[in-house]
Specification:
Helix content is about 55%, strand content about 0%. It is mostly helical.
């Protein structure tokens, strides 16, 4: 769940780059209640939705954040 409770994420697996995602979001002022990969995913959704107000675009941003890690690009796109 995102820190403000706006988004919940359910997934099956491990988001291996969740620490780098969380670190980058913390640098942008995002707060976390835990160190879980699920909360990092919800935080990406929340940050993306805050900018675009489009849930589908927010889901694409999350998928891109995870995909970019596997493509060796660990930086999130600007929100």
């Amino acid at each position: 769940m995102s820190c403000d409770g706006r988004f919940s994420v359910v997934h099956n697996g491990i988001i291996e780059n969740h620490a780098s995602i969380a670190r980058e979001l913390r640098e942008r002022g995002v707060s976390f209640l835990s160190d879980t990969d699920t909360e990092a995913a919800a935080a990406v959704m929340d940050a993306a939705y805050t900018v675009c107000e489009d849930p589908v675009a927010a889901i694409r941003k999350l998928a891109g954040a995870i995909y970019h890690f596997h493509a060796k690009d660990t930086k999130l796109d600007q929100y």
